[in-house]
Design brief:
The chain is mainly α and 505 residues long. The protein has helices spanning 35-49, 53-66, 71-76, 82-95, 101-114, 118-131, 136-148, 152-165, 170-180, 196-209, 214-226, 230-246, 252-263, 268-280, 285-302, 305-319, 326-346, 350-368, 376-396, 400-414, 424-436, 440-446, 456-468, 472-483, 490-502.
C-alpha cells in the first residue's frame, strides 16, 4: 500500500525547532509479565529505527522467549517460517482482547495495513492520539499514516506535534529527513518542495537525538548523494563506519553505501569491489545476500545483462551455502529468478525471460505451499504479482493481445485493494501498451497517477509519452530526475542510463 509501512515526513524546519517540550512525553504502554522483555522490545524498536535489523531481530526474539504471551512481541517478531509467523500473529490477536488500549489498536492497525484499508488505518491512528495525547510516539504513528496516503501537510503537522512534545523524538526527525531524501523506496515530497538545507537540518536533529547511531550519518550521506556530491557522501559514510565500530555494529552497511557512491560516479569496478566488502563484513547471511543483490543490480546500471546473469548464478551458489531457513531460501531464489527475468528481458531474450518468469512463479508457489492454513491476503498477493509480471512480459515483447488479457485479470485482482496505489501497475502497463502502439495521448492519461519521485521505471515511459505528444518540457523534467537519481534498485538500474541519453545537452 502506498501507505507503505515506512517512516516518512517533510517541511518547514523553522516551525519545528522548538526550545522545550510542552508536556512530558508519555511512552505508549506495554503489558508483559517480564519487565526485561519490555526493555528488550523497546530496544528492538530502537535498533530497527536505526536500521540495525540483526540486533532488532535478536532483541525481539529474546523478548518473546521471556514472555511467550507478549502481545506486541508476537505481532512484530520477524520470521520467515510462514506457520510460525501465523502462530505468532494469531496469538497476538487472541491475547489483545486482554491487552491495553495501545495494544488493541496496534493489532487492529496491523490487520488494516495488511488488508490495504488505508482510511481505517488513519482513523485508528487518530484514536491512538485521542487516547494518548501526550505521547510523541502516537503522533509519529499518525504522521506515518498520512505520509502513506501522501497527505504531506497533515503528516508534517503531526510530526511537528511529536517534536513539540519531545524535541529528541528520533523517529520524527528521521521521518522529516526521509521526506526529503531516499532511504530506500520511501515516499518523497514533490521535487519542488524538497530542500537540501532542510534535509541536513533534519539529519542534524537525528544526530542530536541519537549521536551514537550510525544511521544518523547515513542520513547525512544519503542527502549529499541525492544532490550529487559523492565525495561528501563518502565522507559521511566513513563517519558511519566509525560509529558502527564504536557501537559494535556491522560495517557491511557502510561499505554498501560507499559502493553506491562509486556506482553513481560511473566507477563500476570500485562499486563492485565495495559490494563484495559489504557482503564479507556483514553480520549474517541475510545481509550477505542483500548486499550481493546490490552488486548484481550494478550490472543492470552498466547495461551488462550477461554479467547480471553470471552474477545471479554466482549469488545462487553462495545462497545454497548460507545458514537460512527453507522459506528464506525460497524467497531469495524467487528473487534471483526475477533478476534473471530482468536481465533476459532487457537483453531481448524472450525464451530466457519466459523461463525465468515461470521459475519465479513455481518457487513462489512452493513458498506459498509452506503455509499450513489458507491465507487469502497472501494468496491474492501472489495472484496479483503473477498477473502483473505476465502482463509486463507480454508488453515488453510486443504481444499486446495477450498483454491485454493479462491486464484484464490484473485489473480484476487489483481492484479488490482499497489503496490509492492499487491500480498503479495496471495503469502504467496499459500506458506502455498505448505508447508502444502509437497512442501517446492515451498513454499520458493512463500514466496520470504515476509519480516520478516514487516509481522511476514507469516514470521513464511516462516521459516518453509526454515526448510523444510534444510536451517536451515535462518529458525533460522526468528524464533529468531519473538521470540524477543516485539510489540503488532494479527500477533505476533499467532506465537511469536511458534517461541520461534523453536529457538535452
Amino acid at each position: 500500500m502506498k501507505f507503505h509501512n515506512k517512516i516518512f515526513i517533510p517541511a518547514m524546519l523553522a516551525m519545528l525547532l522548538v526550545g522545550c517540550s510542552k508536556s512530558t512525553d508519555v511512552e505508549l504502554p506495554l503489558s508483559s509479565t517480564n519487565q526485561e522483555a519490555i526493555k528488550l522490545y523497546r530496544g528492538a524498536q530502537s535498533a530497527w529505527d536505526e536500521n540495525n535489523g540483526p540486533k532488532g531481530m535478536d532483541m525481539m526474539e529474546k523478548a518473546l522467549s521471556l514472555d511467550p504471551d507478549f502481545i506486541l512481541a508476537n505481532l512484530n517478531v520477524p520470521t520467515n517460517d510462514p506457520n510460525k509467523w501465523q502462530e505468532y500473529r494469531d496469538k497476538a490477536k487472541l491475547n489483545s482482547a486482554n491487552g491495553n488500549d495501545h495494544e488493541k489498536l496496534q493489532v487492529k492497525l496491523w490487520v488494516a495495513a495488511r488488508e490495504g484499508r488505508s482510511d481505517d488505518y488513519i482513523n485508528l491512528c487518530k484514536e491512538l492520539v485521542s487516547i494518548y495525547p501526550n505521547s510523541s510516539e502516537a503522533y509519529v504513528e499518525l504522521g506515518n499514516a498520512y505520509t502513506g496516503v501522501e497527505n504531506f501537510d497533515l503528516a508534517i503537522e503531526n510530526y511537528k506535534k511529536a517534536i513539540d512534545i519531545n524535541p529528541n523524538q528520533y523517529r520524527a526527525w528521521r521521518g522529516l529527513a526521509s521526506h526529503e531524501v531516499t532511504f530506500g523506496g520511501n515516499t518523497l515530497l514533490p521535487k519542488n518542495r524538497q530542500s537540501k538545507k532542510a534535509a541536513l537540518q533534519y539529519a542534524k536533529g537525528m544526530v542530536k537525538a541519537r549521536p551514537n547511531a550510525p544511521f544518523s550519518y547515513q542520513a547525512k550521506g544519503n542527502i549529499e548523494r541525492q544532490y550529487g556530491d559523492m565525495e561528501a557522501a563518502r565522507a559521511q559514510y566513513e563517519k558511519m563506519t566509525e560509529a558502527a565500530i564504536k557501537a559494535n555494529h556491522s560495517q557491511g552497511a557502510a561499505y554498501n553505501l560507499i559502493a553506491h557512491t562509486y556506482l553513481f560516479s560511473g566507477d563500476y569496478e570500485n562499486a563492485k569491489k565495495n559490494y563484495l566488502l559489504a557482503s564479507k563484513n556483514s553480520p549474517n547471511d541475510w545481509s550477505r545476500y542483500s548486499y550481493g543483490e546490490f552488486g548484481l543490480w550494478s550490472y543492470l546500471y552498466e547495461g551488462d545483462y550477461p554479467g547480471a546473469l553470471e552474477a545471479a548464478d554466482d549469488l545462487e551458489k553462495k545462497l545454497m551455502t548460507y545458514d537460512l531457513s527453507e522459506a528464506e531460501i525460497l524467497d531469495r531464489r524467487s528473487g534471483l529468478q526475477f533478476n534473471r527475468f530482468l536481465a533476459h528481458a532487457y537483453n531481448q531474450n524472450k525464451s530466457g525471460a519466459y523461463d525465468a518468469m515461470r521459475a519465479n512463479w513455481r518457487i513462489r508457489q512452493d513458498r506459498l505451499n509452506m503455509n499450513k492454513t489458507k491465507d487469502e491476503v497472501v494468496e491474492e498477493g501472489y495472484q496479483r504479482f503473477n498477473a502483473w509480471m505476465e502482463s509486463w512480459y507480454y508488453v515488453l515483447f510486443g504481444d499486446y493481445t495477450r498483454a491485454q488479457k493479462s491486464l484484464d485479470n490484473l485489473y480484476k485482482l487489483a481492484s479488490k485493494r482499497q489503496t490509492n496505489d492499487a491500480l498503479d501497475g495496471y495503469n502504467a502497463l496499459s500506458g506502455m501498451v498505448s505508447l508502444f502502439t502509437g497512442d501517446p495521448e492515451k498513454a499520458v492519461s493512463q500514466f496520470a497517477t504515476i509519480e516520478k519521485e516514487n516509481n522511476l521505471y514507469y516514470a521513464y515511459f511516462k516521459g516518453l509519452a509526454y515526448e510523444g505528444v510534444g510536451e517536451n518540457e515535462k518529458a525533460q523534467d522526468i528524464f533529468a530526475f531519473i538521470a540524477n537519481y543516485n539510489f540503488q534498485g532494479w527500477e533505476p538500474g533499467l532506465v537511469r542510463n536511458l534517461a541520461k541519453a534523453k536529457v538535452s545537452s
